[in-house]
Amino acid sequence: MTHLSSHTTAKALFQPYPNGGADARHEEAHGWHVRDIAFEQIDRARIEGNEDLFYLLMGASFIETGSDTYASNLAEHYREYPEIADWLRNRWEREELQHGAALRRYVETVWPGFPWQAAYDSFFAEYSRLCTVEELNEDRQLEMVARCVVETGTTAYYHTLRELSDEPVLRQLLGHIRSDEVGHFKYFLKYFKQLQQESPVGRGRIAGALYARLKELRESDSDVALRHVYAHKGWYFSDRNRSFAEVAQRAYQLISTQLPADLAVRMLLKPLLLPPRLEGYLYAPITRLATRVMAP
Ligand SMILES: [Fe+2]
Ligand SMILES: [Fe+2]
């Protein structure tokens, strides 16, 4: 059984901003920009030789950069809801692409010999075939539930990467990205609640959508990304002679053992819209279940 650690309390993690305010104006005020990151101050000695972070950060930079394909599909899916479509196009997509741009700049600064564009192009040729409108849940409410799962996954992922890093510029960057992912989760949850009021979906179907998307997180995107990073790594870490299977297994092991399970489960329970007492009661058994699902 994999041990899932919790480094900070879920409540503290769940608040992306110090005073807990989540309204749009507050978020604007606390926004960040890729130009604010001091890439020239990266302490390369602390990061260059970290093979695991090489793969995990490169992979993340690919997936985030590929966000626009997905964002336009999703905006199209919600075209009958102008507020949602507008937020997806103007806010969510912009932030995800900024994650990609900032991560790319970081990895290119640390590992300048990696042919990022060529590797990304080969990744994207495969990845873009996976992101089609047909992949979206036909039910608008349930697709929002699936988005909540994805944002929970990215929040936990960046939280974990940050825990694994001791390079200060990277820690700052990953902190910004993680806060954005929590913000995305909150918006998707808010829109889900709005749609639920219009035409409610039963809790059984919501739980089914949560579980299905959670299982998909295991396979999918990150594997595709890692494969293309590996194929283009050139001489980087060639002295260690690891096969792709080994690299993928290490990455998976590292992420799954460090994942903040309590944070993830608290987020995952939100779309069920349970009364607070019931949510507290379900917390322990669901954590055990999630641990089993996410463990290798
Ligand atoms: Fe992101
Ligand atoms: Fe996100």
Describe this structure in words.
The chain is an all-alpha fold and 296 residues long. The chain has one domain (41-294): Ribonucleotide Reductase, subunit A (Orthogonal Bundle). The protein has helices spanning 10-14, 24-29, 51-65, 67-77, 82-110, 116-130, 140-164, 168-198, 203-218, 220-231, 244-258, 261-269, 276-294. Helix 3 packs antiparallel against helix 5 (82-110), helix 3 crosses helix 10 (220-231) and helix 12 (261-269) crosses helix 13. The N and C termini lie close together (8 Å). The structure holds fe (ii) ion (2 copies). Residues 64, 96, 99, 154, 177, 181 line the site of one fe (ii) ion.
- Strand pairing plus helix content: what structural class? mainly alpha
CATH class annotation: Mainly Alpha
Q: What is the name of the CATH topology? A: Ribonucleotide Reductase, subunit A
Bound molecules: fe (ii) ion
| Count of distinct strands | 0
Q: Unreliable runs, pLDDT <50, ≥5 residues?
A: 1-27
Our Rg estimate from Cα atoms comes to 19 Å
The portion of residues forming beta strands comes to under 5%
Oligomer: single chain
Distance between the termini: 8 Å
The helicity comes to: over 70%
Question: Average pLDDT value?
Answer: 83
When the domains are counted, the total is: 1
Task: Describe the main β-sheet briefly.
Answer: none
Number of helices: 13
**The CATH superfamily title:** Ribonucleotide Reductase, subunit A
Shape: globular
